[in-house]
Amino acid sequence: MTVTDVIIVGSGPAGVGVAALLNQTNVDYLILEKKEVGCSFLQWPVNMEMITPSFPSNAFGQIDLNSICEATSPAFSFNKEHLTGDEYAEYLEAVVDYFKIKVQTDTEVLEVTKQKGGWVLSTNQENFFCKYLIWATGEFQNPQINHIEGAEHCLHSSYIKHPGSIQGDNFVVIGGYESGVQMAFDLVQANSSVTLINPNKIDDNLTSDPSKVLSPYTHEKYIRMKASRLYSEVLGEVVAVTKEESLYQLQLKDETIIKTDKIPICATGFSLVKKPIEEFITMRKDGTPKLVEETDEFYGQENLYLSGPSVRHDNHVFCFIYKFRQRFGVIVEDILKKEKYPKEDIAAYVSKWKVHGMYLSDLSCCDDECVC
Ligand SMILES: Cc1cc2nc3c(=O)[nH]c(=O)nc-3n(C[C@H](O)[C@H](O)[C@H](O)COP(=O)(O)OP(=O)(O)OC[C@H]3O[C@@H](n4cnc5c(N)ncnc54)[C@H](O)[C@@H]3O)c2cc1C
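Above: query sequence and flavin-adenine dinucleotide SMILES. Below: predicted holo structure tokens.
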């Protein structure tokens, strides 16, 4: 059995980013990754791009929105604002190589058990023991089609690797947030006709928080798509899908029926990959894990932390990289305190991580709304 202080499960931005901070300390850590670094990004549909723009603004104290550690910028590496999934995975790999971050690939964590003083992880390779476990398995590999009876007759949008190559008429996309609008846009670009179904008006700008409304990048596409005769929109909630021979019938909550001969495409979201640690998670009403605000430990589970887009505190949603990276420092600070690091050393790390946008403990500032 391999023994180490900290194990991080997952080598996406959440796992590699928190490891980059641990790498600056003497705490022993290892990332376990079931496939390869940036594996989720390598699975993205080919024409999907980061919606958060990159810009090499680091030198003036505004770190690139998609950076996961200091002195790096995807915009600088690729001379591009909106990286594809393959490009972002390459950025993560470059960070791992440059900073010599310890990752063991092809190692899938299958079982986690709590033991006195730590956690035992069974994998497809060997067993591991660690005092601190950081769960960074992301959401992309856990697509969701909830609350639709007959969901087996639908296809989740994340399984369509080449949306531009699908052609025909009468496509139906369920869900009008980022992935749904992107999917409908790609279909219209490929000269296919699409109906998009969403419970609310897509361009209602009720808040400036892009975790709750369409990002400006996708909104621009939405406006272009809306001008096309190939695009139509239905306000409503799909509750059931049936299939008879080659015809799909979608029933909405208000009993409207929509028919199509194309498999309905669900852009209905993702949720945390939690299988081997499910028993340790208390859920909030919104279906995300309940966490300790000061440390991002799972509620009631000392030394088991969450890093990544499923982090929520009150109504604050940390689903983008520029948001969840600010909690990397909070996790590592807690580990350093428990390892009895000198207070002045911890303070020095924290002030450096604050400067680099990797530490945010006072969440009251997240309430600010833009006024114009
Ligand atoms: C479609 C989509 C588009 C997005 N676009 C943006 C964007 O433009 N900008 C932005 O900031 N955010 C975006 N996000 C949010 C996105 O979730 C994060 O940016 C990012 O992918 C999350 O990083 P992560 O490291 O938590 O997860 P991931 O990148 O998914 O990494 C998790 C890793 O864990 C590994 N893993 C899973 N289970 C195990 C296991 N049992 N054992 C070992 N390894 C395991 C996986 O193989 C994977 O490599 C998007 C999300 C989605 C779903």
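The two ends are 57 Å apart (CA to CA).
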